[in-house]
C-alpha cells in the first residue's frame, strides 16, 4: 500500500457484476481456460460471493489471490465454486513488520486463515515480495513453514509500480535468494521441481518437507517466453504485462458499443512485447529513471 494511500474513485469507474461476466465469457470464448481473481483485494466487493459463483459456471479453472483477511467468510463459497487453489499475500512473519508493510493490523487473522485453508484441504501459495533490509532476513523462516504444512512459498522479486518507491537497490534477486537457501540447507537437500511451460515460478522442495518454495524472478530472470497471462483490471482495462504502462479499455467499448471487445482483446494480445513490457535489458529496468509510470498494484485489481 502506497504511504499516501490511493485516490478513491466513483463506483461507476469499475465493472459491474454483469459487465465483468460479459467480458469474462468473451475471454473464455477466445480460449481462456483459467481465471484468477486478484487485486488489490477481490473479496472486499460486496458482490464477491455472487461473482465467484457466477464465474464458476464458466468452463474454466477458477482460482483466487487474496490478502487473507476475509478468507474465513468465503470457505463455503470457495467450495461451492470448486476453487481448490488460493494464493495469500503475506510479506512478513513478524507481526509489527507485516502491519507496517500492509498498513493494516490483521497479521493474526491472515495467518489463522492460512492455517484454516490448509486444514480445509486447499492448495495454498504464500506470496512474499522480498525487499532488501525489510524482510530478506525471513527467507528461511518462510521456507520452514513448508516443513510441516503443505504450502508453497513464493518469493517475488520487487517490481516497479507507482507509489512503492521502486529502486532495484531494494531488490532481492533469484541468485541472492538461492545463495541464502543453499547456505542454510546445502545443495544436496534441495530438489528442483519439474517445471511446466507456463510456470511463473522456479520451484524447489527441501527433502522431507511437506511443502515447496519457489521464486518468481520477474526482474532478474523473466519467464516472458512462456507467459500466457493477461490481466483484466477492476476498471475494465487489459494489461498484457504488469511491467507495461499501456492499457486497452474494454469497459468503455462495452458500455458505448464503439468497438468489438473481441477485436480489442486480439489487438492487445498481438501488441504484447517479447519481454518485460519492452524493457529487455536488466540495466534498463534496474535504473529507476528508465521506468515508465505504471499505476500502483493496489489500484490495478483484476
Question: Which structural class is indicated by helix and strand composition?
Answer: alpha/beta
Separation of the first and last Cα atoms: 16 Å
* Major sheet summary line: 8 strands, mixed
Shape: globular
Estimated helix fraction? 25-40%
Radius of gyration: 19 Å
The succession of helices and strands, N to C, reads: HEHEHEHHEHEHEEEEEEHHH
Task: Provide a quick synopsis of the model.
With 302 residues, this protein is α/β, with parallel strands linked by helices. It is built from 10 helices and 11 strands.
3D architecture notes:
With 302 residues, this protein is an alpha/beta fold. Helix content is 30%, strand content 17%. It is built from ten helices and eleven strands. It has helices spanning 17-29, 48-55, 75-81, 95-102, 107-119, 139-148, 174-185, 250-256, 261-270, 282-285, and strands spanning 34-37, 61-66, 85-89, 123-130, 151-157, 190-192, 202-206, 212-216, 231-232, 237-239, 248-249. The longest helix is centred in the N-terminal third of the chain and has 13 residues, at 17-29. The protein is globular.
